[in-house]
């Protein structure tokens, strides 16, 4: 049974890595759409659909694992953590689609804050990669690094917000563009939060304690 | 076994209704904090902590059900749907906490758009109630109503956004207050989205098809 479980666990790891890569891809796509003004809606929608399908596939795999293998202790935590992680990864796809929707309205916006969006995209892509990596390797230290990296993303959001406020006060930017850009930045900030959630589930799968636990 | 499953399913229903009530409570609390300028941070944090704990309790109940009862077909869908729904309900708690964080900065803001926040809160509370109700009753029609109600919430968000833009253009509102109010409205709009997700899981648990399914 153990070998069978290990085999299915390996499949789960591979599927999660694939889902993570799709998330990294969709984050980069929507950042490019926003910054390089390319119309990548079709690619983004295709990637998001694939992410949604991966969520269902991995969920079914986890349920199969639970029913067939009746895992306990750490094995059970790994599966329940995976079930949670895929919800966060799926949300990353949603956020990217939301950013893609805003992009056309921001094509003509040259607010300096836009450059920070690129930094947010790079940072969140790295966080997603490392959070999945941390799960596959049961690496709590790497998970903690992902949580720390989120501070940078939050700071970038605050920076964009402050710059937009100044621009508005100086009438240097139309109110709609400012609000759309703020929203886009917020979506990237949320993507970082989802990567942090994934990292928190890694911590739970290894230690058995989640930061939301009452006893934590 | 069936009776045992039905008993555990009833417990699951009761726990979900409780978690839903906590979400309704926290939505109302953060709306009151925003509109009536009461400091309800402690109550909101307490409710959010309870929501997080409920998520873990219900998750454990679902895993126990899966492992002990080995459900198939609709029974299995009900449990996997519940596992998904609790993630959305937990997020509602997070969004409410985010709104509570913004509230102090909006205490002195008298933008007319603030009244729509009250409408958004009322609408989302109703959506949460009905989405859980739809799950307990396996009522696909009620789930569809929740999805339809979200249009109203989205329209209220757009209304607030437009009003804020006008105010900014007329220099009638400080840029920071405008952005904080936009964010608060966005959080309520997201709460509506989470209620819609719950309703979509109800539909899946009954029909076996989720809107994200590739074959759908």
UniProtKB/TrEMBL annotation, chains A, B:
Q: Which SUPFAM superfamilies match?
A: PhoU-like (SSF109755)
Using the UniProt record, give the first listed, main subcellular location: cytoplasm
Q: Which Gene3D superfamilies match?
A: Phosphate transport system protein phou homolog 2, domain 2 (1.20.58.220)
Q: Which GO terms describe its biological process?
A: intracellular phosphate ion homeostasis; negative regulation of phosphate metabolic process; phosphate ion transport
What does the record list as coiled-coil region(s)? 30-64
Please name the InterPro entries in this protein's record: PhoU, PhoU-like_sf, PhoU_dom
Q: What does this protein do?
A: Plays a role in the regulation of phosphate uptake.
Q: How does it assemble?
A: Homodimer.
Q: What is this protein called?
A: Phosphate-specific transport system accessory protein PhoU
Q: Which gene encodes it?
A: phoU
